[in-house]
Amino acid sequence: MSKDEKLKNFIRNFVDEDLENKRYSFVMTRFPPEPNGYLHIGHAKSVCLNFGMARDYGGRCNLRFDDTNPVKEDVEYVESIMSDVRWLGFDWEDRLYYASDYFDKLYECAERLIRTGHAYVCDLSPEEVREYRGTLTEPGRDSPYRDRTPEESLDLFRRMRAGEFGEGEKFLRAKIDMASPNVNMRDPALYRIKKAAHHRTGDKWLIYPMYDYAHCVSDAIEGVTHSICTLEFEDHRPLYDWALEKLDWPEPRPRQIEFARLNLEYALMSKRKLLQLVKENYVSGWDDPRLPTLAAMRRRGLTPASIRLFCERIGVAKKDSWIEMEWLDKAIRDDLNPAVKRVMAVVDPLKVVIENWEEGHEATYQAPYFPDDPPSMGYRDLPMTREIYIERDDFRLDPPPDFFRLAPGREARLRWGGFIRCREAVTDASGEVTGLRATFSPEPSPAEGGARRPAIIHWVSAAKSIPATVRLYDRLFLTPRPTGDLDGELNPQSLIVRDTARLEASLAGAKPGERFQFERLGYFLLEAAGPPPVFNRIVTLKDGWARRSKGKKPA
Ligand code: ATP
Ligand code: MG
């Protein structure tokens, strides 16, 4: 399958059809976030889809803030959304729009719907509206205000705008069909009274358009051809089309196409839940690296390319599903694997004294930064001294049968170096192992060499390593499909801070923003130069998570 074929999906089929039939002569899409939270990986799917389609068809994609609800919106969100879209690698050029820019036009269109008999002002209270609406199996009932003359409705609508009525006292609704099998068509609300200042229009408006009405008209104003949205809007499409038709909007009108939203296992994507996690301090902020927000992923160390790759691979479908986190992890690894140096770091150090080396004895090994293709990234020196650190995890006093690394009397190979045999474990009063005494040999000892190849473990020189803090991030939730019960479902081990970690000496010159693979541990980003330098774990190595969830240690 060629790349082009792979990128084919049902949305592109629609677009191809529309271009062929000359319904449109070009492609115009938009990404329409509501500025009421930070963008997350689900939004990234929509960004990649909308901007990606525009790019591939030589069209354009607008960034439009759907800021029709003054109460929940904020400029902080507007700014974060813009920087996230740019970071993902997309550009709206000079086409930055706000639904609030269209408030005058939306108001004018609403008056037009009233004058032409397609909308009326209704005085039912919210409870009454619910009663009149009917159910999925029963039709609704006409509002007693449905037959108001256009003149009367127009007068009331203008007085709503002037602030004569309180919130909930009156609203403007479409006059469609209270018996429609589609509840969205039972005279839905178009405008409501809301006495709140808006982050862009200030206190100019006391009435605000409803999302469904504002969205289709905004799309039409911008000349959008394909209005791509998530599946829950499928039942709203008749309303989308209805409004533009009743407004006599000139053809070609935008076409709404729905696709399945992204649900990612071990993550929660509801903005309400994300806000709760932030506001109630379950996490340190919108960019806490455990969140599925783009700000968090950027901070953790993901590249925009890995997110685009992930979105491309999961594709678009017409049916809701959950995507395994492993897909995202794999995209991250596939992106970083060919690009970053392999180095050694010990996050939970256990000191080993090499008994058969004298004080001050030193050796230097040369190790390639990229073992699969050494010339591509070159080599660095690894100093070895009489005292080294290994990972505490690589030693067991009483090794279980399936543990093949270091234990008393056993031999292991130091990555890029020689062999150490553990002679003795030093313990403190409580029995905790505080260090090892070992002998070194450049070759495996014959006794063990033949029977079983010693395990290879990573290490650093004690004297010539750099103290560092390493933050080990993990899934925020324990359950793959969290319901949102934060106290029951959060993973208490989602962040483990190792502040006695040690890095090999070559990392002394690393710059914030640089990424590395710490051999056997995962991919890491240097977030702050320090001292001590602070590294974030971006992702574990393959199967790291699966092994840990079975109670085993990462390979
Ligand atoms: P809400 O409307 O509840 O505030 P939302 O997640 O729909 O939340 P929007 O700001 O309206 O947030 O979303 C902007 C765009 O991103 C919309 O077109 C929406 O369809 C799309 N989008 C949001 N969440 C996802 C998701 N999980 N997968 C794919 N697209 C999404
Ligand atoms: Mg939405």
- The CATH architecture name of the largest domain reads 3-Layer(aba) Sandwich
Rounded to the nearest angstrom, the distance between the terminal CA atoms is 34 Å
Report the CATH superfamily of the largest domain.
Answer: HUPs
Shape descriptor reads elongated
Radius of gyration: 31 Å
Q: Count the E strands.
A: 27
CATH class of the largest domain: Alpha Beta
Strand content: 15-25%
Number of continuous helical runs: 17
Helical content class = 25-40%
Helix-strand makeup class: alpha/beta
Overall pLDDT score: 93
Detail the poorly predicted runs.
544-555
- According to CATH, the fold-level topology of the largest domain is Rossmann fold
Number of domains: 2
Q: Mind summarizing the main beta sheet?
A: 7 strands, mixed
Bound molecules: adenosine-5'-triphosphate, magnesium ion
Q: Strand order, main sheet: write it out.
A: 12-25-26-27-23-24-13
Can you lay out the helices and strands and say which pair or pack?
Elements: H1 3-6, H2 10-20, E1 28-31, H3 41-56, E2 60-65, H4 75-88, E3 96-98, H5 103-115, E4 119-122, H6 126-133, H7 150-162, E5 171-174, E6 189-193, E7 207-209, H8 211-222, E8 226-230, H9 237-246, E9 255-259, E10 262-264, H10 271-279, H11 294-300, H12 304-314, E11 321-323, H13 325-336, E12 341-343, E13 345-346, E14 349-354, E15 362-368, H14 374-377, E16 379-385, E17 387-391, E18 411-414, E19 419-427, E20 433-441, H15 446-449, E21 456-457, E22 459-461, E23 466-473, H16 486-489, E24 495-503, E25 515-518, E26 522-528, E27 534-539, H17 544-549
Helix pairs in contact: 3-12, 8-9, 12-13
This protein binds adenosine-5'-triphosphate (ATP) and magnesium ion.
